[in-house]
Amino acid sequence: MDFIKGSINEVRKEIDKLSKQGKDVVVIAGDSDFNRKILENKKVNVLLFSDFIGRDKLKQRDSGLDHVLCKLAISNDITIGFDLNFLKEKSDLVISQKVSRLAQNIRLCNKYKNKIKVFNYVKNEVVELKAFLLSLGMNNKSVKEAF
Asked: How many H-runs (helices) and E-runs (strands) does the chain carry?
């Protein structure tokens, strides 16, 4: 699996190149507009949320995913991926913001029945991560399929 990141034009070229080679295409998520353009492409296999960077609005978290994008991912058979590497960071404020955005995305994926995949986890910590994801609102079936 190759992870793609960059501007939308660079990413589109890389998607075409990898899909012609028959490889799985995993694109690292960006802002909502970038994610929409990626989810419209049927050649993408996974949209990976690795770093929940963004500025929250006054009454809403900006997690990079909304109901429209969830429906678009379902219609194009694209899996939503979560990179849990941010849990190893030391800053409490950043982790709390990222966990709240992760929880929001999990709730959206559960509501619209998106496929979920988890990336970058340590094999001996799977039980703890499953419990963590269950506490954030992921259902049992999704947790089993995500690993």
From this structure: 6, 5
Annotate 54-110 with DSSP letters as a single string: ----SSS---S--HHHHHHHHHTT-EEEEEGGGGG---HHHHHHHHHHHHHHHHHHH
Q: What is the mean pLDDT of each run of 10 residues along the chain (147 residues)?
A: 82 92 92 92 93 70 88 96 84 80 93 93 84 92 90
**Which pTM does this prediction carry?**
0.88
Domain ranges of the chain: 2-146
CATH architecture of the domain covering 2-146:
Alpha-Beta Barrel (3.20)
Give the three-state DSSP class for 145: helix
